[in-house]
Amino acid sequence: VKARHLAGKGITLSSDPYVRVTVGSQTARTRTISRSLNPEWNQVFAFGKDRLQDSTLEISIWDEDIGRADGFLGILYFDLAEIAARATPDSPLAPQWNRLEEMRGERVKGDIMVAVWMGTQADEAFDEAWQSDTGGLSLTR
Fold first, then answer.
1. Residue 62 and residue 72: Cα distance in Å, rounded?
2. Mean pLDDT in the chain?
């Protein structure tokens, strides 16, 4: 996961961005990258297919603010029914740039690069993934 050309917020016109990945009631979060409009998180997330309660994957970017509500930087939605299965567990991933979308009329700027796929525990990325079923282990690539 990485982003480019994010909107700068506050007096410094910079951001301290992080990503929230949500499927139904399951949410994962990247670490925060300080003062960056072009952050790179390089984190992998996995959600148990048997626990998916929604048909939409939501990826949102936020500006972390101490002492007040975090600022919205953009959002992206994927229909789970349209996400392709990975051909083989070690086949190459195909990350793509996606334009961030507005939410509730808040203007946004920038793009996010993600690779989204349906995999299995045999997937080579599985061992490095954030496991929503284990309480929040987050590892980077």
1. 5
2. 84
